[in-house]
Each structure stands twice: as C-alpha cells, then as structure tokens.
Amino acid sequence: MGGKDNVSRQFTYPLKTTHRPLPICKTLKKKSKIATNFVTFTKQQYTKMPTETPRKQFQSPKKPKQSPNNVKSQSSTPSIHLSPQTPQLPLRRSSRRSLQLFTSKTVDEMLDLSTPRKALEALDGIGKCSGNNRKGSSVRTPRTLKCKFNEEDREIPEMGKVGEGNGEVEDAFCPVSPEALESKKRKKGLSEEGSVKMGKSPKCKLNEDLGKLGEGNGDVVSPEKRKKGLRNEESVKTRKSLRCKLSEEEMEIPDLGKLGDATFFPVSPQALESKKRKKGGEKRAVTRAMATRSLKKVNKEEKKGRKRVYYKKVVYDGGEFEVGDDVYVKRREDASSDDEVPEMEECRVCFKVGRGVMIECDDCLGGFHLKCLTPPLKEVPDGDWVCGFCQARKLGKDVEFPKPPEGKKRVRTLREKLLASDLWAARIESLWKEVDGSYWFRGRWYIIPEETASGRQPHNLKRELYRTNDFADIEMESIIRHCNVMSPKEYAKANDQGDDVFLCEYEYDIQWHSFKRLAEIDNDEDGECANGDEDWNSCKEDDSDTDEDMEYEEENERNAHARPSTTHQLAANSRKGRFFGIQKVGTKMIPEHVRCHKQTELERAKATLLLATLPKSLPCRNKEMEEITTFVKGAICDDQCLGRCLYIHGVPGTGKTMSVLAVMRNIKSEVDAGSIRPYCFVEVNGLKLAAPENIYTVIYEALTGHRVSWKKALQLLNERFSDGKKIAKGDDRPCILLIDELDLLVTRNQSVLYNILDWPTKPHSKLIVIGIANTMDLPEKLLPRISSRMGIQRLCFGPYNYQQLQEIISSRLKGIDAFEKQAVEFASRKVAAISGDARRALEICRRAAEIADYNMKNQISSVNSSTVKDVVTMADVDAAIQEMFQAPHVQVMKSCSKLSKIFLTAMVYELYKTGMGETTFEKLAMTFSCLCTSNGEAFPGWDTLLKVGCKLGECRIILCEAGDRHRVQKLQLNFPSDDVAFALKDSKDLPWLAKYL
Amino acid sequence: MGREKEKEKPSEKALNLLRSRLSDPNFIFRPLSDSPDSNYSKLKFIISTSVTEACNNSILLLGPRGSGKVAVLELVLSDLLQQYPEAISVIRLNGLLHSDDNCALKEIARQLCMEHQLLFSKVASFDDNSQFMIAMLRECGLAHKTIIFVLDEFDFFAQGKQRLLYSLLDAMQSVNSQAVVIGVSCRLDVDQLLEKRVRSRFSHRKLLFLSPSKEDTERFMEHILSLPMDSSLPHNYAAEFNGRLKKILSDERFKELIDTYLSFNFTIGHLVRFLFQAVSYMDLNAGFLSLGNFKTALSSNQRQLKLESIRDCSVLELYMMVCMKRLEVKEQTSYNFYSVMTEYKSIHDSFQTSDYYAANVCLRAFEHLLQCQLISFIDNKGHNQSVEFRPVKLLISSAELHQGLKSYQQCPAILLKLMDR
C-alpha cells in the first residue's frame, strides 16, 4: 500500500494529494475504455474552454443561485479525472521546462498546462474577444445555450446505448442512425439553425427540461449520492423529478448529469479552485465506492456515465482529429495574439499570398513564387534547389532579404513558429471526453533539434523534429491545427503537401538526452495490438479482478519508468515483463554517416539482400502458404477445432517459419478488418528454451502474462486445455501455438511433446499446434502415441530450385541495377545444387556485392579512375562462392612450412604404402627420415617432427592424438589425400614432393 | 667511467626499445596492414560497413596459431573505436571460458550491462538473459550502435546444441539490429562443426590468415629490428646499428638460419619469439646485434628434449630402457614392470654385469622413467592396478636411445652392445 500511496502522491503533486484508494481509480480507468469510434462536433456545439470568457459571463448570473457548497459539489464532478495519467502531467511539464530553459512563465502557470493557461487566455480573451469575430461575446450568449441543448440531445441516445451495456457505442453514431444524420447537419449549419432543428425534434421537451436543469444546477447526482451529499438537497430534488421523466424516456440519468456539467463547468481562473475541484472529486470517488457496495446495478450505470469516454476520432473546431495525428499546440498564452494564421505562406520577394506556384528553398525554407525569382523559373526543378539569397550567403556575401512593404508585417507561418520554438507539436496518443465534457488528448511532444541537449546537429534537416518520450494531457482547445510529421520514407515522397510537413526519424529521450531511431514496424504492430485489446475489452462486460490488478501494475510500471529517479533500482537483465533501464541505450549524437551518406546502388543492393530485411512479397511459397492459411482458418472458424495439428518440415532456409509468420500476419489483418474471430498466437522456438520443460512457462506467460514455474504452468495449462477451466480473459479465443525447432522438445520420455500434442484433442481446448522441424520423419521416430497425434497433417517445404532462388533474389533486387543477370543465376544455380538454402543464396549475393564494393572503393582510392564498374559480376559471385563453400585447407597446406609439407607428403606416402588410413608417429617418422635422406634434406629430429605434427593437428589438417603419446601417437589425414596432392604438387621450394604424391 | 655509462646507455635503450616492440602486437602487425589485400583492410571493411550501413555480419577468422588473427582483429577494433566512438561496443568471449551456453549468455549480459551502465543481476535465468540480449540488440540497432561479438576459440562454441550461436544468429536475422559475430579459431573445419540450422544462419565470411611470404618476412624483420633515426638514441649509434643489421640481414648464412628456423613453423608469432630471443642475447658492451646472437637463439630452439632427458637418467634406468627395447625387438609389444625385470635378470644372468639391483630399487627407477615420460602406460584403463602390473610402452625411438647412450658419459659399454644385439 505504501508504494501505491507514493505513486499517487507523485501523480497529483501540484494539484492535491489524493488519498483515494487507487484500485478504484483503476476500475474506473478500466471501465472507461468504451471507445466511440466517431463523434462529430461543431465548434459551436462544443464551446471552447480557454476562450470561454463569454460563457463565463453568461454563467456568472447563475452563480448566486447556488450555495457555495453547491459550487463545490458541482466542481467536484470530474472525479474520474484523477486517473493516474493526468496528474503526471505537471511533473513532466516541469521537466520539459527545465530542458528548454523557458523562463517567461511563473511556476504556477507551468504547473498545470491547461487550467491556468486557459484561465489566462480567458482573462485576456475578454479584451480581445470583442474584436474577434470568431468569439464575439454578444453573439455568444444565446448560442451557447442552444448548443448546450444540442449536446444534451445528442448525448442522450448515446448513453442510452451504453446503458444497454453492449459496448456498441460506436453504432450510436454511425451515419445510419438519425441522430448522426442530425448531428451531421448540425455540423454543417450554424448553431442557430441547429437549434431550430432541435426544436423540431421529438426530444424538444426533454431538451428544455434539461436546459432548465442545467441552468438550475450544473450537476446531476444520482439518488445514491444524494443520500451522502446533504448539501445540495434542493437541486437534487429537481433532479430527481427530472429523473423520473428521463427514465421514462431514455432510462439514463447520470450521463445527463454529466452533460449538464459539461456545459456549465465553471472556468476557474485560479489554480486554487482547481485544487478544490480535485479535492471534491476525491470525496466523490469515495462516495461512489461506497455506493458500489450498496447498490450494484445503478452503480454500474453510473460508472459508465461518469467516465472518460475515449474516442478514436473527434471532429473539433472544424478539424478532424484522430488518434495518431500530429497537431500544433499553443505554447504561450500570447500566442493567441498572432493567431491569424496564414493558411498560405507568403512569397519572400513579393510578400503576397497568391496563386502561382511557389518553390521552397532547401536551405532557408523560404517560399518563392516562380515568377518572382530572378531569373524566373518555368517549372519546379528536380532535386534540391537553393534560393539565390542562400547561394550568395554561402559564397560569403552579406545578403539582405527584401524587406516587406511598409505597413505590412511579415506573417510567420505556423511552421516557422514551431521551428523557432514558439509553438509545440504533439502527436495525439488518445482522445477522450472528460467527465465535465471538455475534450482532452494525451499528446506526445515533438521537439525541435535546437531544444535537445546536443543542439542542432550539422546533418539535421530544416524540417526535422524529434519525437520525445514525454507525454502530457492537453486540452483540445490548445490545438491550433494539424501538422504532418512523417517518416523519412513518406517525407521523401511528400513534395507538395503544403508547409506543415515535418520529418521525424528519431525519438529523443528527455532523461538521458539520447536518440534512438523510431522502430516503425514494431510500433505499428504494438499499436494494433493495443487497439485490438481495447476493442475486445469493451466487448466484455465483466472484467476479472486479476485484470485490473495487472493493468494497475502496468500503469505503475509505466510511471516508474517515466519518473527520472526510480527508487528501486532493478537489474537490466532480470526480466519482470520488461528490462529495466534499457531506455538508457541511445546515441548522444546521431552519427553523421547515417544521415549524410547517399547510398550507392551496391549498398542498396546489400541492404535489401540482408536476411533481416523482410521482403515485400514472398515469392515461390504460394502453394504452401495457401495450405497453411486454409489450415489455420479452418481451425479458427471451426467451433471445436479438435486435434488440429500441422507438422511442417524442410531443410533449413526454405522459408518455413517465414511463411507461417506471413500467413499469421495476413490473418491478423483479416481479424482487424473483422472478418475473422480474434485468436491468440503464441510462438515458441525450441532452440531458445533452456530446457524443453520451459515451454510450459513460455506458453503460459504468452497467454496470461504471468510467470510461473514450469510445473505450475503445466498444471494450469492442463486445467485450461483439458478441463476447460478459464484462467484469464480471452480464453474463449482459439489459440494457435507455433513451435519452431520442434525436435528440440524431444525428451527422454517425450512427455513434453505428448502433453502439447494431447491438448488439441481435448474437446474444449481450442488449441491449434503448428510444429516446424527439419527432419521429415520426426513423427515416425517418436512414440506411436505421439506420432498418431502429430503425423496426420504434414506440409513439406522442399529445397528451392534455381529458378525459385533466382526469383527470390531478383524480387529483392527489383529496381536496383547492381547485379549482372548471369551473376544472380550463377549464384542460385550453385546454391540450388548444394543445398537449396535461400539464406545461403542471399548471403552469397550480398557477399559478392560486398566484394565488388570493396574492390571499387579500393580502386577509387588508388587510381581515382572514373571508369569503375559498379556492377556485381560473375567473378565477384565466384569469389563469394569460393569463400563460402571452399574449405580453406588447400590454401593453408600450400602456405605452410617446409617440414609440414614433407610431413603431409610422408603421410600420403604412408597411406599409399600400407593402405591404412591410420598410422602411428613412429612409422611416420621412419618414412619421413627416408624421404629426407633420399632427397638431401636434413632430418630435424623426432621432437621437432612431433611439434610439426601437433601443429598440423591443431588446424585439423590431420587428426592426431595428444602429443604426449609421442611414439605411439596415432595420426590420420583429415582431408582426402588428393587434396594434399593437389596442394603440394607444384610447391616451389620442394619440387621433389611430387614424386611421392 | 662516465664514458662507459654513456656508451652503455644507448645499447640498453635500444634493447629495451626492441623488446617492447616485439611484445607489442600493434607494432608488429601495423606494417602488414597497408595493402588492400591484407586481412586487416578486408576485416576493417566488413566491420565498418556493418557500422555505417547498419547490417549484420558473421565472420570467421581462420588460421594456424600465431598467425595474428586476434592481433589483427584488435588492431581493427581499436581503429574503429577511434573512428566511431560510442557507436561500437565489443563483447569478448572465449570458448575456453564460456563454452557453456548458459554461462556465455550470462557473460554477454554482464558485458552489455557494463557497457551501457545498466545494473546486472547474477541470478537471471537463461531465458532472461537471452531475451535481454535480443532486446539490447534491437535497442542498439535503433540507436545506431553496433555490437561486436568476438568469440575466441570459436570451435568450443560450436559444440552441443549451440543454443548461444543459434539465438545470436537468429536474432541477427530477424531483429533489425547491427551486430557482427566474429569467430576466431585455428581449426580450419570449424564451419563444418556448426549445426545445420546455425550454419544456415551464419553468413560465412571467412578470412584466412596465412604465413607471410619470404619478402614480407624480410621486410618485417627490418621494420622491427632497425632503430629509429629520430629518437633519443644517439644518431651515430642508431645509424651504425642499422648498418650492421642490414649487413646481417643480407648475409646468406643468416638467411639459411632463418629458413631452418621457419622450416617447421612459418608464422609471425613464431618468428617474433625467435627475434625476441636473439635480441636478448645481444651483447650490451658491443651494443650491436651480431649473427652469433641469432645462432645461439636458433640452437637454443633446436633442443632435442628426449635426448636431454636421457642424459639425466641413471645407469639403472638406461638398463631398463635397453631391456624394453630388446623386448620390442623380440616383438613383444606389451610389457610391464615384471616382464622388464625378467629381461633385466636374464641380461644379468648371461652377461654378469656389475649393475644389478633389487626389485624395489628397479621399481623406483621405473617410476622415475614414467615421470620423465620416457615411458608411458599404454592405456588409461586400470587406474586401480598398481604401477608394476600395468603395461607400458617406451616413448623413445631406438635410434634416439642409441644416440643418447653414445652421448652418455658413464655409459657401460655392455649397454651399447646390448642395444645392437
């Protein structure tokens, strides 16, 4: 408990310490993951918070009606707010601040991103609003009221749906439903029109009621709460009466309460008040917890309503924001002063925004009209283009950009502001509606190179940003608009996508000031997983306790991870779900060679030929993949999936594992699309297990996330698969188990294999096993009871023939002109003749490219000739093949010492003489001395001879016993005698050797 | 007196300089690394491309012992560490120490933790460590860092199930990492030892370290032995030293000498050992190397160890060996202490030698021969049997024994006679 307390204090530090038991908080969080796919909002519907001054004025007359207590209780609504994420924010913010040395703010302002700023903006908004036609206060007053109605109206059905508890909130807003249509219309129309329509709608009465309610009291509390909250007796009565009405119509109250809340949420300018609010929230939570115990069903409904509602997409302020989008975020309060953001960039010469094609200088990022240039350009040139000013500056001249005409201030675009660190950019990680109706998102900051510890590095591009590991909860209000942060690949393609295009290739760790490349593929997969999980969670009504605990732990860990100083130092390699401190790994500076180097054809060829690069398509295994697909699909869709087991065999490097994984990826995308039931996929590699029994632990961990000993895991898995007991959520999903290198699981009594293969035959196991091994007859080698379970369905991956290998290589080399056609064919023919191993073929080609590259670079450095071919030829491939397949012993024999040569000759001679492969040192020494005397060489002595023999034995040219056996030492050639003959036949220093070979 | 000191000083200095050069592999292998055909530049190219182009490689360095595999590798690594500081971390394992997969992985994890200032836990299991390694490979790949695994005595890793190699190479082909596995071995058939799955994943770059050519050896000797002209050594001295050295090196006798020496082991390491010995024989008073120094070094290298150990034997021991030899001539291949004793007695009976000792004394002599490894047990079986019953074998050839007897000063004439008969 102590730990939890500690954590919670950490979270809420600047706001208020909460003593609310955290598990409840967890429950809330968990339950709140009801995702709404699409919610539309007009700007008018959702009134902006920070610029909310008019509304505040509008509200103020109401306030006197409420007792101070009331205010408190009202403000206490956003209890759910206190989920561990939010309060983390101030800490993170401060760390960011220290990093940026941003001094212009008071501490208070910095502590909370949203509220104080909002308040400040609201304050100076009073002055500005009058002039600002967007936020005209006179227009505002009635409009706000109406939009309130709209909102309530819209919300009711949604919540009703939620009440039904099917988690199909999304449906409520699918375009088919009338509400959605209406909301769409509303989106188009002005708010006045919308209100007219609303008036026509059947729910008009309710709306009015609600309006009254809203005016009367911002908060609607459920009856249970009323029992506790003695303060707002009156208002509750009103509400109660309302409730009856409502329940007749829609059966949903708490949400309405929330809605009322949303519109009348007081914008508190002081942090103090926000503190109060938090405090209130905390109390409320306790209350609710009690209520949970007393009245379960209503509580459930209430919980649903009082929860953050997460969305995937929100239309806000005319823009559509989605999870994963990148947005500009306001950085300073006064940023609103120059908020007439030009959509178009001005020309740097004529200072007009206008038609006509503009071109961007790659150096100063200034925009120029084609016709304003001297000399004017007809069309946008290919490649990099640098404007005349920059060119001149590079030449050392002092250049002045043309001054804007009198009276006109040069307007900076958002991009310029961002790069001048007057703005922030963030990536939306999640979107939700707070209980009070305000829209928030969790943003992941981007940082410009200047703000990093290492500063701008020479290879940084002008439009480069870094993604940080710094998160913050930000109110949607502070979003200015979209920007477009791209990966290098996308960026390279983005030619004319406007000004708000940025490049992001690296992640910046704000604690360790280190950089790391973004792992795109990994990230995407993770993201998908997370989304999928969420969906499935929301489908489920009852979450078990273990789940929540788990998530709590995760949360806890994430926070521990985020905090700069972890109190408990954990070893990096002791894995408890993750590795501690691994985020430390990162470069302090991005090495220049990575960025500034332009790849040659050969280098690109090498990169695509790497084993680690996944090819876009997998040629030549279509038949097998189809078979696997039908097997897996059949097994998943089958309700029982009894005894499903597939045995895949084939020699190494024939694409077994890759095909299965590709099939699983395809199926997964189908699952995501919704055409197939979700399943879980567990991958185990027999060779990576310390012992065969550990497979139980690994499987169990993959299924549930818990780590137990293998005996316990076996027991639990047995319970699950044989007895049909459920251990965790998602049990009803079929489970696909891929066991790579299956032969490693064979133990003496073969119990591991038996257990694993026995589960699929159990009626409710829903287990599908795919085993991969090299030998064709593995099932036959096993006990009959195992082979009967495994050997039914088999799939053979034959070795590739040369056409297939050629296709594989050339499919990878598509678009790269680095290989001669015959070279590829030669390599593939050679490999096909030897093993049919695709890895070998790829490696040979890569090695050949490497050799060609090496030769080329050497030639350039030595001769500096321009006529260097940069194509991989047959000779290179041949060299690579020689290196890979030829044993090096011939070369070693050729170059070894004189005595060694005679020694080997003597061995061959001895072999011919006796016909016996094995000889003893004594006999050999006799032969040796014979050879020496008859050819005029000095006999070196037995001891030296012994040493020579041992040296050869070390290299395994001959096989010999240990040297202390001396005279009785047994010797044998390790290579065919022909090799020795070949190597020594024409040795220059000892021509007589040929006689004896 | 003072003059002498001054005179001695440069020679001592020169000796120290030469010795320190000879024991510094960097100095020895640097001049051999210039040409593009040298292993140095090939290896450097492979490793530096995997640093700059972010790819995985696995290389085998093969060659007989003393051919400078590790020395060249270290040279390359130190150069690359200078060139790309921070971007390279080197993990060194030795097959003799870490051939056990579990302990090798633990060592890898430990060195990775050391390298990145992470906390290391001794109790982490095999799975933990291997997953940690894979995670580190990925992270380092993302951070543009290359991990270089140097596996010395690679053949010891290629035994058993080869889990370490498999998980390492499998990670390298599936994770986007940049890692180089460098196996160093003197066994030429080491890639045949790899398990088929491991072999398929191994990228099979091979660098063969061969003996240098004759010209290279000469160049190399001159490079090592000649003194620098621009050092603290007196200029005249250095000039004269180098002049004399040149004379020696071009001397036919010296070339012959070197040839004889290198005729049985033609590697750089072997040559360096010889030079060190020769330099150590340098006469400090003369202050210059002479041909004699090299000759002494050679003769001290060409010792016949078995003959020397015969010289240390007692007459009784000689008797016993001669008896064994006679038994072998009688085609009695297997004999033990008692059969030797019977032969000894029969010799004594027929020739009435003065050297006749009791059985227990003979047993002592027999044991001493065993310790000198002039004789040895035929097999390792029968450890529990007492020494005198175990069959033994003479480890010295009859020719050597004869030579030894001849050179033995107090050798009874009867023994030589017995040898012949």
TrEMBL record, chain A:
Main location: nucleus
Region feature (Disordered): 40-97, 181-234, 526-568
Keyword Mitochondrion (UniProt): no
Biased composition (Polar residues): 40-50, 74-86
Domain of life: Eukaryota
BAH domain location: 403-519
Annotated Acidic residues bias: 526-556
Cell compartments where the protein resides: Nucleus
UniProt biased composition (Low complexity): 56-73, 88-97
Keywords: ATP-binding, DNA replication, DNA-binding, Magnesium, Metal-binding, Nucleotide-binding, Nucleus, Zinc, Zinc-finger
Domain PHD-type, residue spans: 344-393
Record family assignment: Belongs to the ORC1 family.
Record's subunit section: Component of the origin recognition complex (ORC) composed of at least ORC1, ORC2, ORC3, ORC4, ORC5 and ORC6. ORC is regulated in a cell-cycle and development dependent manner. It is sequentially assembled at the exit from anaphase of mitosis and disassembled as cells enter S phase. Binds unmodified and methylated histone H3.
PANTHER family in the record: CELL DIVISION CONTROL PROTEIN 6-RELATED (PTHR10763), ORIGIN RECOGNITION COMPLEX SUBUNIT 1 (PTHR10763:SF23)
Function: Component of the origin recognition complex (ORC) that binds origins of replication. DNA-binding is ATP-dependent, however specific DNA sequences that define origins of replication have not been identified so far. ORC is required to assemble the pre-replication complex necessary to initiate DNA replication.
Record-given protein name: Origin recognition complex subunit 1
Organism taxonomic ancestry: Eukaryota, Viridiplantae, Streptophyta, Embryophyta, Tracheophyta
TrEMBL record, chain B:
DNA-binding found in the keyword field: yes
Molecular functions per Gene Ontology: ATP binding; ATP hydrolysis activity; DNA replication origin binding
Alphabetical list of Gene3D superfamilies matching this protein: P-loop containing nucleotide triphosphate hydrolases
Organism name: Gossypium tomentosum (Hawaiian cotton)
Job of this protein: Component of the origin recognition complex (ORC) that binds origins of replication. DNA-binding is ATP-dependent. The specific DNA sequences that define origins of replication have not been identified yet. ORC is required to assemble the pre-replication complex necessary to initiate DNA replication.
Gene Ontology biological process: DNA replication initiation
Protein name per UniProt: Origin of replication complex subunit 4
This protein's record includes keyword Nucleotide-binding: yes
Primary location class: nucleus
Keywords: ATP-binding, DNA replication, DNA-binding, Nucleotide-binding, Nucleus
Superkingdom: Eukaryota
Subcellular location: Nucleus
Domain named ATPase AAA-type core: residues: 59-205
Origin recognition complex subunit 4 C-terminal domain residues: 221-404
Family statement drawn from the similarity comment of this UniProt entry: Belongs to the ORC4 family.
GO cellular component, one term: nuclear origin of replication recognition complex
Pfam family, one: AAA
